[in-house]
Input
Amino acid sequence: MSSLDKHVIRKARPYRCAILVILTAIITYASQWFYIQQTTRYQQAIKTEQLNDDVRQLNTKNTELYNTLTHQEKSLAIQQATNQQLQEQLDKLQNNVISLKKELVFYQTINQGNNTSKLQIRELHLRANEMEPELFHYRLVITQGKKITRPLSGSLSLTLKGMQHDKEIQSDIGEHTLSLRHVQVIEGQIKLTDMFQPTNIVVILKQNKQTLTRTFDWQLGGY
Output
């Protein structure tokens, strides 16, 4: 075999190195990109978990604040209801005190100067009903003189007089039993019919053989 037979002539491959370089660069870039993606996802997962923890803590605080607010609102509502009840009771007591003072002044006025020995039809007060315009309240005061020491008994009747359709009409309001020692207050109601114009009320008191009559003009006031 000659020396020429031992040498193999190979063709040059100029792009082989370039391809290897490109492949190496691609693999390196892909590895770096994958690493960056994994790192970013991991960091995002950590941040997400932290945010979830923050949200859970905020929800817990929000629940605590809501429970506290609800408790305070209930306490405030109870306090307001209590204050309202106390105010209503106070107003009621004040109204009772005012009424008692009026009653005291009323009876003091009745007893002033009552040194007579006679039975008297003293006063008649009329008051309109705010809820029912056709309804009226009356209060009649009967007194006995201070010189009379025994209780008195008898009967008492009231008659309402007025005009209706240009005619004079009268109707019995009612009868009451007289049983008093010093003072008796008789109260009742009068209900007027349509088109009736009251003019006066006649009070007739019978005690044994004694009869007292007094006529009061229809005049509204208060008591």
